[in-house]
Amino acid sequence: MTEVSRAALVLRGLVKSFDGKIAVAGVDLDVPTGSFYGLLGPNGAGKTTSLSMAVGLLRPTEGRAWVLGHDVWADPVEAKRRLGVLPDGVRLFERLSGPELLAYHGLLRGMAPDVVDQRSRELLDVLGLADAGRTLVVDYSAGMRKKIGLACALLHAPRLLVLDEPFEAVDPVSGALIRDILHRYVDGGGTVIFSSHVMELVEKLCTHVAILAEGRIKAVGTLDEVRGGRDLEDVFVKVVGGRVATGQELSWL
Amino acid sequence: MSVAAPGAAAGPEAAATPVRPVRVTVFVGLKLRMMGYRLRSGPRLLVGFIFGAIAGLCLAITGFSLFLLSGAVGHDAGLTVAGLVGAVLTVGWLLLPLLFFGVDDTLDPARFALFPLRRRTLTLGLLAGALVGIPGLATALALVGLAIAGGLRAGVAGAVVGVLGAILALLVCVTVSGAVTSALAGLLRTRRVRDLAAVMLAVLAASIGPLNLLLSSTLANATLTPALRLARVLGWTPLSAGFMAPYDVADGRPLLAVARLAIVAGTVVLLLGWWSSTMESAMVGASAGPVVRATRGGAVGALVPRILGALRPGPFTAIVAQELRYWSRDARRRAGLISITVGGAVVPVVLRLLPAHNGGRGAAPLPLAVLFSSLTGAAMLANQFGFDGSAYSAHLLAMVPGRVDLRARVAAISIVMLPVISAIVVVVGLLSGDAADVASTLGVVFAAYGTSTGSASVLSVLAPFPVPNTSNVFASAGGTGAAKGMLAFVGMIASAAIASPVLIAALLLPAALSWIVLPLGVAWGLGAALVATYTMGDVLDRRGPELLAEVSAAP
Questions:
Q1: Residue B311: its chain A contacts at CB < 8 A?
Q2: In Å, how far are B75, B322, B393, B408, B501 from B376, measured between CA atoms?
């Protein structure tokens, strides 16, 4: 499997069913190394489920996943060492302060304490979290939580970043900052895949796009391939098959 | 909130189309419907509801019998019982929202912030809605006893005054809790205050035992006079005026009864006014930001406390440090620690110290008396992953070996609990004159504590359940959580059985050899903990993702 070893993330036939209800119905994906990959989909399309299976947090009913050539489920130690994850809707150890949380993640991964100290300081400074001092993460705002989550994902310098809704509830300034950090990361040879349902963001950031709906990949390729000269939003709505115009109803509005 | 009152859901057309006024019955219907949904949404909530209903029924029957009793016993005794029980009931309603804030948010005023409702309508609606819940119905049932007692005491007139008093007392209860919630809503929403409330509740619950002991020993040689005097004073306050009114009728002073009822009715009106005036701020729910304190030193230094400085920094140290922080910072865990510590101190006192002072009749041997304390010491680990919830994903992503994870958690709670348990043994042993048995008892305690950490580790990996992420300790009661929580007791019994050889050795060995129990117990406990974490570590490595799914299920 040469494409498995060359790509940063490869998913093959990922299926997940909960009590017989199918959430993800066979996802295949190739995320090339050095790409900025956007996973688009409406709410409930299976984005979080797919990404959780890809990073080893949720056992797939069927299918496999490889991170830089290492099988996530058969060889998790090697795969997870190269992987940084920002899960969505997942609690952090939020009764630690920002620096404590970073130190916790660093030590859990077996990093040297002086490296943890130095990187934590830089990350907190760059992300504007140094001012928060000893405030516990539980008292952080939504945007600050995303940023400290991102810092935890970046701390061990992974080669692949998997981010679930990294821009949700983030203010424009923090959003621009996160975008800049991710751009630098990709320029430096890293790979990013993130899920979103904000078209403008994906159009602005991504080199590659996949559209996920009803647990299946509906469209996939480079941004230009998927767009085909049209607006990404039009393509998305057409592919997903939602209703965009109203008829005779709501005439009283 | 999709279930909206038809008239309340008025949109932009409100000006054009006439809107039906919102009736109070809408709120009652809403509350009933939400209770119905809750019952249908799964067995977990159903079981919780049934537990709540049974608890409510028990309290209702207790209150009913006490009030009924007040009508059957002598005049002064009845007056005292009715007055004091009534005051306790009212104070209970006053404290209830402070402890339970956010548990029953079906009718949280903030939920209605967007509806164009008049404050009067909303206040009366919330009042009616509160009456429909389990606490409201239980109180109403208990107060039926008061009406009957009034009848027993002073015939038809007494019954009428009793019914009026009961209704007004119920209204005082409900309005006082609503008004206090509303007035303090902003404060109650802040995390620190809620954490504090949870701890207070734990202390309160844990001190019921000691208070009970104290009370019964006081009652044994006390007369009725001071209690009667207290009841007479309380009878002129809103706390128990409504409960005492029937006695005025019985004494042939109906005007006094009317005066008392007027006090209560006036209180209800005042409370309703206060409630409705604070409603607005409760809907907005503003809270001040946290105080920022600067950090000193590096991140690792911030996480790892100095007492762990000797350990090599790594996953084990990190988890011990994190757990230590959580035992003091997470209100649920802190509350548990406090209850276990208080309970662990009270049980040996009751089993050993009190009988020893009464001439030694029925006193349990020291090792038996403190066995419970050591078994419960580690029982909180039985759902240690439930406390983490989905945050456990960080361990999964970092590939923390299961053995390291389990052992670090055992080490962290042992740093807290072992000194506490040892102190209990030494203090109780010295006070009850068993100084010679302290060494062997410590052996038993260490053995039982070790086996208890072992069984808790097993349970925590095999039967984890999600714990709601609120600081309210009662929010976790009910459902599969309660059923699996029962396993912790099974685990404690199993631990006792596994540690029993050490206990038997302590009880049977001649005094000259009893020192041997101490090293034996330490080895026994350590061995049990190591074996359990060794085997369960492997299981944890295999079923990490499944465990994550089980503990992060949305409550």
A1: none
A2: 46, 22, 28, 19, 19
What is the residue range of B53's domain?
Answer: 25-205+224-284
- Nearest-Cα residue of chain B relative to residue A74: B542
Summarize pLDDT for B426-471 with one digit per residue, the tens: 888 888 777 788 888 899 999 999 999 999 999 999 988 887 655 4
Size of interface A-B (CB pairs under 8 A): 135
Verify that B315 and B196 share a domain, yes or no: no
Cross-chain residue pair A134–B292, CB shorter than 8 Å: yes
Residues of B with CB under 8 A from a CB of A: 13, 191, 289-290, 292-295, 298-304, 313-315, 317-319, 321-322, 325-326, 329-330, 388-391, 393-400, 469, 545-546, 548-549, 552
Pick from B452, B478, B399, B544: which is nearest to B50 by CA?
Answer: B478
Question: Do residues A135 and A147 make contact, with C-beta atoms less than 8 angstroms apart?
Answer: no
Q: Which residue of B has its CA nearest to A124?
A: B299
Kindly state the percentage of chain B with pLDDT values over 70.
Answer: 77
Within a domain: residue B188? Answer: yes
Query: What region does B71 belong to: left with phi over 0, alpha with psi -120 to 50, or beta?
Result: alpha
Same domain, B182 and B75: yes
When comparing pLDDT for B524 and A90, which is higher? B524
Count of domains observed in chain B:
2
Do B511 and B436 contact (CB within 8 A), yes or no? yes
- Could you tell me the sign of the dihedral formed by the alpha carbons of A137, A142, A143, A149, in that order? positive
Terminal Cα distance for chain B, rounded: 18
Same domain, B280 and B338: no
In a domain? residue B7? no
Residues B270 and B157 in one domain: yes
Spell out the long-range contacts of A143-147 with Cβ–Cβ below 8 A and sequence spacing 24 or more.
Answer: A143/A169, A143/A170, A143/A171, A143/A174, A145/A92, A145/A94, A146/A86, A146/A170, A146/A174, A146/A178, A147/A174, A147/A177, A147/A178
Residue B214 pLDDT: 57
Q: Is the dihedral of CA B144, B149, B155, B157 positive or negative?
A: negative
Q: Supply the pTM of this predicted model.
A: 0.71
Mean pLDDT, residues A188-215 taken together: 89
Look at residue B9 and tell me if it is in a domain. Answer: no
Residue B371 shares a structural domain with residue B255: no
Give which of B13, B192, B193, B303 to mutate to test A binding, by max A Cβ within 10 Å: B303
Q: What is the tens place of the pLDDT at every residue in B116-169?
A: 777 788 888 888 888 887 888 889 999 998 888 888 888 888 888 889 989 999
For chain A, the straight-line distance linking the first and the last C-alpha, in angstroms and rounded, comes to: 58
Q: Are residues B160 and B112 in the same domain?
A: yes
Residues in chain A within 8 Å Cβ distance of B322: 93, 96, 100, 104
Of the candidates B285, B200, B287, the one whose C-alpha atom is nearest the C-alpha of residue B473 is B200
- CA–CA distance, A239 with B473 (Å, rounded to integer): 47
Same domain, B110 and B185: yes
Distance between CA atoms of B314 and B304, rounded to whole angstroms? Answer: 10
User: What pLDDT was estimated at residue B14?
Assistant: 42
Neighbours of A190 (CB within 10 A): 21
Give contacts of A107 with chain B, Cβ < 8 Å: 300, 303-304, 313-315, 317-318
Residue B64 falls inside a structural domain? yes
Query: B377 and B252: one domain?
Result: no
Of all residues in chain A, the one with the smallest CA distance to B469 is A91
A87 vs B contacts (CB less than 8 Å) = 390, 393
> What are the DSSP E strand ranges found in B326-452?
none
Which of B284, B316, B333 lies at the terminal end of a domain, its last residue? B284
Residue A171 in this model has a pLDDT that exceeds 70: yes
DSSP B7: T
Please give the sequence-ordered ranges of beta strands (E in DSSP) within B12-141, or none if there are none. none
**Tell me, what's the ipTM?**
0.91
